[in-house]
Structures are given as C-alpha cells and as structure tokens.
Design brief:
With 494 residues, this protein is an alpha+beta fold. 62% of the residues lie in helices and 8% in strands. The strands form three sheets. The protein has a four-stranded mixed β-sheet with strand order 1-2-3-5. Strands 4-9-8-6 form a four-stranded mixed β-sheet, covered by helices on one side. Strand 2 (129-132) and strand 3 form a beta hairpin. Helix 2 (28-63) crosses helix 6. The longest helix is centred in the C-terminal third of the chain and has 56 residues, at 438-493. Residues 1-23 form the signal peptide. InterPro entries: ABC1_dom, ADCK1_dom, Kinase-like_dom_sf, Mito_struct-func_regulator. Belongs to the protein kinase superfamily. ADCK protein kinase family.
Length: 494
C-alpha cells in the first residue's frame, strides 16, 4: 500500500500558476469582520483545548482509583484510557489545526509515548493533497487554507499568555525563548516559496548522494499559498512491516537516515527542523535497495558557522571523553557548569565515564548521575535552556526525533554515535584556514591531519568493538533459543 494522499483538483495548481487568488480580496469592512471572526475562533480553540486536556487529566485521575498499579486490570484499564485520550487529542488537533497539529505530529514520533498515542496520532503526519498534471504526471499539492496566518497569530498569543502566567506563578520558569523559536518556525511554514527554495537547496547539497531523494518543485505552479511538487512514492521510515515485505534492512535504513542528518548538521549547517516519520519515506529500488525521500522543507535552520565548527569540536571531545575540552566548549556555548551534562544528553555517558562508546552506563555511574540530577531544580533546568545558543534548539529537537525513529527501527545505539563522530570529523576538515602565512597554514594542516587520523582510529576501533558486541549478543540469543527448543523437546519426550 503506497502512501495515502487526498486527491485535489488540478484547478488549485492551475489557479496558482495563473496568479489567481484562491480567496478574493476583501474590502476594509470585510477585513474587520475577518479579524473579529479569527478572534472568535481563537477563543473557541483555546476553550476546546482547555476542556479536552482537563477531561484527559480527570479521566486518568478518577478511572484508575482503587486499582493496584501492578495488576492486569490496572494495565488493561490504563490502555483503555490511553486510547480514549489519544482519540480526543486527535480530534482536538484536527479541529484546531495550526500548531496543535505540529504538536500532535511531534508526540506521535516519540518512542517513549504509549503505543495508543503514537498509532492514533500518526494520522496527523499525512496532510498533502495528490493531483495530476495534463501529462498525467502525479504531483503533491500543499494548499494554505484561508485565515491560517491570523489563526496562527492568535494561537501564539494564547501560548504567550499562558507562558507569562506560568512565569508569574513559578518565577524560576524561563522558557519564553523557546516560544519565540516556535513562533519563528511557524512563520516559516506560512510561505511556501521559502519551502520550495529550501527543498532545492537541500537537493543540491545531496546531489551526489544516490540514496537521498528530494521532490522536484514545479515553480510555475507554486506561490506563497500553493506548493506543487513531484509526487514521490514510499512508506514512512518506521513502517517495519513494509520494510520486511520489501526485504529492506531496518538497520541499513537507520544508518542512511542518520548519515543524511549528520551531514546536514556537521557539514552543510543547513538542517531540516521537522524529521518526523511522515516527512521521511522509504522508496524501494529492488533487491533490498531503497531511497530515502525527504519531504516538508518548511522549517530549516541555517547554523552559524562558528557554532557548526564548535559543535563538531564538541562531538570530537565527546568521543574522546576530553573533559577539559567539553567544559571549555560549554563556556563558549554559554552554559558554564552545565556543560558536564553534554555527554549524558548526547552519548548516554557521564563526563567521568570509563565505559566504551555506545555501551550502557555502569550501575555505579547511574547511581552517581541520579544523585547529581536529584540536586537540580527548575531554576537549573530553565537556566540551562535559557543559556543555550538558538542553534541548539533545532539540534536537540531534530536529534530527539531521530533517536525515536532509530529506536523503532531497532538500530544499535552505536550507529548514531559513530556516524555523528565521522560527520563531525568531515565537518572539521571543511573549516576555513584562517591563519595567514604559509608556515602557519602548513602547521595547521599537519595538526589537523594528525587529529583526524587519531579520531578516525578511535572511531574504527569503537565500531569494531560494537560489531563484535552485536555478534556476541546474536550468538547468545541463538544459543538461548537452541536451549529453549531442546528443553521443550525433552519436556515432550518425558
């Protein structure tokens, strides 16, 4: 079954090409009524959200009363509430639209949420119409609905009001900057010509990569409100049943995916900001081969050049567990003492860890980390988030979504870590040689080459150890299954 699309008449695209407005311009009186209507709808959306969330909270609180949390009845009832709540939230997102849909898309992408939520809300990831040109070529058409911009502004005002209210009640709450970043991201999505330009720029970045596919833009059928692109066939990147039917390795898909985004971040510094499964398709090419189709280029972040290089250096330090360098980079990023949590956030190791990259923390490390984190308050967390450079927000969000997808694909932890490390080395190779003079440039080149070789050796050794570890686990699993089969056979004979 191919990716579903709602069909749309070619008239929409034809109107866009001819420069015909989809909604006729209104006189001044109509504009005033339009604003009043938008305000009315904004109040309705806010009220609907408060009611729905209140209902969900009450449902969890009262429906589970009197049940033992470890009982089968509790687990069955909890699953029912999950499904009931997910359906209500889906309805809320569909009715309210705008950032509510974006929030639903994000939640559906997280591996950590109950399966009832991820499966129910995943329908929000399909939102593009399908049409056909006169030459019978299939196209994907995105249409901006009338009044969307006004509704978005009101929703942002509502979020801002709620954020300020929370800040007044809890003075340590300092997440206003995240709201500003969210508003900028939503504004980008209101101009489809910007999305088309982002799409073409990404296609150019990966023009030599045969695995990555970016849909072609039909500029003659594209305006600020209508975007017409080549229709690409495929399934969501986390559709394991589809991958098995096509005999495509989920681990290979995971590796190609993390290589794609690793190159975006560390080499090009031009990052897709919304990589949920609905925006990444796997298109079969036969014999287990595939293409990754990257969709929805509305939200991108162009990283500051210095930040990109510092982030490459951070990953190099994370792989080497160079404590001094990590803390120094923390000062440059403006987070000070909180830099010691970078290894935990990105690699799952503490800054004092002695364990190999890609392995779990020891029980002692987990105990020490738990004690350390227990001393942190809301003011510490908000101060850390407030201090982070703006570019870090898209990095953290993108990495969080990718981790969820990799987890669903069953990829080993070291795949992401080693791929990021290699991309960081590649990104550092491309840094400009700022030093003047032939002697300085020569010493810099020698120093860079030695550093590169050192890190490459460590990466390859870590990769080899990870492969050996995978083989060991597979062998143990195979032996365990053999013993189980032998035990069952002996039981039948006896």
């Amino acid at each position: 079954m191919l990716r579903r699309r709602r069909r749309a008449p070619l008239l929409l695209a034809a109107a866009a090409a001819a420069g015909v407005a989809l909604v006729a311009p209104s006189p001044a009186g109509e504009n005033a009524r339009s604003v009043a209507s938008a305000l009315q709808h904004g109040v309705a959306r806010s009220s609907r959200a408060v009611y729905t969330i209140g209902f969900v909270v009450a449902d969890y609180k009262y429906s589970l009363r009197g049940l033992d949390s470890g009982s089968a009845d509790y687990r069955a009832k909890l699953s029912e509430i999950h499904l009931r709540s997910a359906k209500k939230l889906l309805k809320l997102c569909e009715l309210n639209g705008g950032f509510y849909v974006k929030a639903g898309q994000y939640v559906s992408s997280l591996r950590q949420v109950p399966k009832e939520y991820s499966s129910t809300l995943s329908s929000l990831q399909d939102q593009v119409h399908r049409g056909q040109l006169h030459d019978n070529q299939d196209v994907a058409i995105k249409v901006q609905y009338p009044g969307l911009e006004q509704r978005m502004k009101i929703d942002i005002m509502t979020m801002s009001f709620l954020s300020k209210s929370v800040s007044w009640i809890f003075p340590d709450y300092k997440f206003d900057r995240i709201l500003v970043e969210f508003e900028k991201s939503m504004s980008m999505e209101l101009d489809f010509t910007l999305e088309a330009k982002n799409s073409e720029r990404t296609a150019n970045c990966f023009r030599k990569n045969s695995v990555v596919k970016v849909p072609y833009v039909f500029w003659q059928l594209t305006t600020r409100e209508v975007l017409t692109m080549e229709f690409c066939y495929g399934h969501k990147v986390n559709d394991l049943d589809f991958l098995r039917r096509e005999k495509i390795s989920p681990t290979k898909v995971a590796k190609a995916l993390i290589e794609l985004f690793g190159e975006m971040v560390f080499v090009h510094g031009f990052v897709h900001g919304d990589p949920h499964p609905g925006n990444i398709l796997v298109s079969p090419q036969g014999n287990g081969k595939f293409s990754l189709v990257l969709l929805d280029h509305g939200i991108y972040r162009e990283l500051d050049q210095k930040f990109r290089l510092d982030y490459c250096q951070l990953w190099k330090a994370l792989i080497l567990l160079d404590t001094k360098k990590i803390l120094a980079l923390g000062e440059q990023f403006g987070v000070g003492k909180y830099a010691k949590y970078f290894p935990v956030i990105f690699t799952g190791r503490t800054i004092e860890s002695k364990s190999a990259i890609g392995t779990q923390m020891s029980s002692e490390e987990q105990r020490q980390l738990k004690e350390d984190l227990s001393s942190l308050g809301m003011d510490d967390i908000s101060s850390f988030m407030e201090a982070l450079p703006r570019d870090f927000y898209v990095i953290l969000r993108t990495d969080g979504l990718l981790r969820s997808i990799l987890g669903n694909l069953g990829a080993p932890r070291h795949v992401r870590l080693l791929t990021y490390a290699k991309c960081a080395v590649h990104g550092l190779e491309k840094q400009p040689k700022l030093e003047s003079g032939a002697i300085n440039r020569m010493f810099l080149q020698v120093k860079t080459n030695i550093s590169y070789l050192h890190l490459r050796v460590l990466i390859e050794i870590a990769g080899l150890l990870a492969k050996v570890n995978d083989v060991k686990h597979k062998a143990v699993d195979k032996l365990r299954r053999m013993f189980q089969e032998i035990s069952q056979a002996l039981h039948l004979l006896m």
